[in-house]
Prior knowledge:
The complex is a heterotrimer. Chain A is of the alpha/beta class. Helices cover 34% and strands 22% of the residues of chain A. By secondary structure, chain B is mainly α. Chain B has a single domain, classed as Orthogonal Bundle (MetI-like fold), CATH 1.10.3720. Chain C is mostly helical. Chain C is built from 13 helices and no strands. Chain C has helices at residues 3-34, 39-44, 51-60, 67-79, 93-128, 133-147, 150-164, 177-211, 214-221, 226-263, 269-278, 282-310, 312-317. In chain C, helix 5 packs antiparallel against helix 6 (133-147), helix 7 packs across helix 10 and helix 8 (177-211) crosses helix 10 (226-263). Classes of the chains: A alpha/beta, B mainly alpha, C mainly alpha. Chains B and C meet through helix 1, helix 4, helix 5, helix 8 and helix 10 of B and helix 1, helix 6, helix 7, helix 8 and helix 10 of C.
Amino acid sequence: MSATPKATEAPLLTVRNLSVAAGHGPERRTITVATDLDVARGEAIAIVGESGSGKSLTAKAIARLLPQNVFASGSIRFDGLELMEIPEPHMQRIRGRRISMLLQDPFTMMNPLMRSGLHIEEMLSDRSEFSSRAARSAELERRLGEVGITGEKVAQRLPFQLSGGMCQRVALAAALARDPELLIADEPSTALDVTTQAEIMKLLKRVQVGRGMSLILITHDLRLAFSTCDRVYVLYAGSLLEVGGTRGVEADPQHPYTLGLLLSEPPADRRVPQLIAIRGSVPRPDDVADRCAFDDRCDWRADICRVAKPALSEIAPGRSSACVRLGDIRGEMRALRRRALEPIPTRPADATRSAPLLRVRDLTKTFVLRRGQHVHALKGVSIDIAPGESVGLVGESGSGKTTLGRCIVGLETPTSGTIEVAGVAIADYSKLSRESRSRIRRTLQMVFQDPYSTLNPRHSVRRSVGEALRAAGHHRGDAHARVHSLLRDVGLPEDYSGRRPASLSGGERQRVAVARSLAVGPKMLVCDEPISALDVSVQAQILNLFKRLHDEFGLAYLFITHDLAVVRQVVDRVYVLYRGEIVEEGTTEEVMTQPRHPYTRRLIDSIPRSAVSRNL
Amino acid sequence: MNVQGKAVHAERIRHVAAAPGLVIAAMFVIVVVAICAIFGSGIAPDSPFTQRLAVGDQPPSAEFLAGTDLLGRDVLSRTIHGAWTALVGPIVIAAGAFTIATLLGLVSGYLGGMVDTIIMRWVDFMIALPAPLVAIVVVGVVGGGYWTAVLVLIILFTAPDTRIVRGAVLEQRPLPYIDAARVLGVSKTRILFVHVLPNVLPIVLAYVLLDFAFALINLAGLSFLGLGVEPGTPDWGRMLFENRTILFSNPAALLLPAAMIILTAVSMNLIGDWLFERLTR
Amino acid sequence: MNGADLARFILWRLAVAVPLLLIISFGVFALVHLAPGDPVRALLGTRPSDPETLATLRARYHLNDPFIVQYGKWLWQVLQGDLGRSINGNRRVLSAIIERASVTVVLGAISTVIVLVVGILLGVVAALRRGSRLDRAMVMFGVLGISSPAFVTGILLLYVFGVVLGWFPTFGPGRGFVDRLWHLTLPAVALALSVMAIVVKITRAAMIEEMDKDYVVFARARGITPARITFAYLLRNALVPVVTAAGIIVIGLLASGIYVEVTFALPGLGSLIVDAVQKRDIPLIQGTTLVFACFVVLVNLIIDVIYALIDPRIRFTSVAS
């Protein structure tokens, strides 16, 4: 944690009544209502919110980089200068020199046709001391060194030739090339792997503290905010709901939403009986203009919450909350938190192992690209899953986890090795008899990552699930009834069957996808990152769904994910995959508390955490 | 105008729809043209075939609103009747080319491998040919004729259309809902026609209209060179061929059919762009 | 750029072009047999059809040999530079082509310059002034241009500028450099207009697509000057799809040029082809089509090389595309 900013100094950035909206007149859509923000010199604040909260556009508004058709109003005072009133050429001179920004996707942030070093060099050209080539090169080297890049080669490369982490480092160096006083980082690590994420965040923190620079971190990850910043602003559906120092907010959240968000994030250090999920999904700011934004989904809602939109009010020095019922419900909130975080013991390993449902031995898969390049996605992987057992497969991008999942369900054919399901060898689906193939497909099904493209956009829910029933040979007339019963199983109302995916939220779509895979009555589900593309508050809902289905139907899972915290909550045994090889396996408890392989240890260490969460 | 331009235009442009008022005007124009095509004889003031050599090559007058051509035929009546060949051929070309292209594109895009390579090699080859040249030469050597021209154009248009459909299929193919169908064991044929096709069809529909405009232009062009419709047929392109010599005495005989070609093509393009934007939102 | 890589790329492209040319030559050769009736009659033209002439023709064109052999002999002749003789007038096809080629090439060159320079400029301006009235006008212009084939535009321009205003001549190629330019202005503009519309549309769309991308936002966030962003970021990236399309555009230009030459009665290669087709002069059709096709393939190759030079990404990912 950085030193707390001096209370006496005026803040570097003072934002008052900043509201952002899209469109004009009758088509105006609110993105955020009037919000206030303060950033002191050298301070790091986080704006935390899910999708639709307006956090990213608020950040862009501060730098006056809003896209076409999006407008901001209010006051943004930067070191005494009112940014909303200065002409664009003046603002352009401020950007880069005093206020800079770092965006989310390291690859798209860089000019694809420009060498990475040039991104930094072009920012040095206006200073006379760097007019000579030698001086510029030296400076370039120094700056790359600051972000942990040594050696000539990187600067000469084009962005597409670098890894995500490398690109992000170069981008950071470019953003800092003119030594700004304030850096706005918009989800700077979201597009990266967990281990790379941790590295970049550490780097960012080091640089921020080293330069005494102010930082505004935009993120959806509360844990990240707590481990990196001094103060946090919680934004939901365009309204600020809570503001405070990170230690305080983490230890004792003063708004039901913050509490809900905290509890939705699966704790990495223990298994809890059930994740407290926030029901429903994020509303549009305009729909909640006249009441508390969180009203629909709040467990403590009352009439007073709907009278008007509650304002953010100070409840202690440096802490504010927009909950009007805070006094009444504080006690209940704390109790809920204690209950929710009580660990339950994980199931002891089953001593008598029944014959495995899935048996994979020495599986390899090599992809041959153009120009004869070989990519060894899997290098001899062996796993077992017993009937009804929930097993996790943990790895980052490039580990081969998705490839393994796809080989098992027949979307890819392995190069060598065996896969057996209930005794039938299925490594090569095309070699199976039609009958066997059909039987296997009714035994194994898959749930995919992206809820927005997992359903056919032109098929209604009934059609999508119906296709599954049809494929399973279900031609009886009661298909409708079957569809309804499946929808009920996944927690959706029956009248959703006539709807098209476009009118469903991400969480709802994923539920339909699960219903679809349940239609054939499988014994095992291969779930490939089924929740990572969902909002945090919805992730918990779906995780609970998976747990319930496991208990109700005795389903076996191969749960593929990069998130160890998720693994902790859902699976009994875990395999850790690194670059195509299993480097560790064991029960969840063992692997999480006593990791043996250095990579596993690195993975566990990469989970952002602060001191507070460990001492509850 | 040419097949390559069409291929490029179709693929690379994010179409911008014009103001709604313009689109409605465009639809109105098409409706008018269609009415002329179907009810030509009922609307036209005179027969398009009657020759009155005595009053040949006259500028517009009360009797002949657009004047007469060299053979004394009423230019306005010929223009109205010309709507028929301006609509029928292009519709057949657009529909025909796209039907074939949809089948080829679906198969090529989804199956990949050898099938895809073969089909795409053929497509690349066809697109590399300068289409107007091929059309002129082939139609000319075979002996001309409206339906010959239509057939040749269908063949020439199929290639860029196949590329468009294949592109749309390739966009859908890696999506999880297709994977889900495969994991469910749905047959390839069913996946193609029940799962992929409905998602490709909207784009195809928009492009069919754009294809129509290009077909009209190419067909009229062939007639302009005397290679399309049979001599004597009232056809806008043919009229440009016949009346070139009377540009100075009765310009209406050229300007009217020229304006109709542009108007019809522009209208179809506007509607096509508008449909495209609506369907890719 | 690595010289060896470039050389390999060019050689590969040439290798791909050869089979293409062979297929085209085969198609061109087979034209004779496409014509309705006995090929001999088609080759006869207007000459008397007595047995001797027929026999001479059969011998000259090897019509009694099997198809493949005929093709082989014809191809051999062509490779030696002998494109046969025109039926009408018995002139050597090759000389006819050379005579007419200059008009076509000059017309094509002027149009290409107009299309690329003006087209790209308008596209860039429209994109930078996105949503303004100028932009809307450009879009309309685009639609209009695509819908107006060169021969129609040609006639309209002829009427307005040639007949009504009398500023430009209405037919013929002119004599002498300046006179020739004056004569070729209207045709070049007519030709350019329809194709330029596509270039404007592509450039505008490409620029707008780049303008919304992250790397432009990041550049602005770093305080890079608008001028540098327009050139080093936007234009540079937007040119890639434009260049890809440019090759296709140039080919389209050449093809549409045929119509323009006919409209303005210019003695170029295009009108020669049309003439030959209308008169069913098979050897002439074959010769001119072959030359035209070869030229098209050559231009494609040049454009591919330029594209490879501009976009470093494709150099690294694959040689064959």
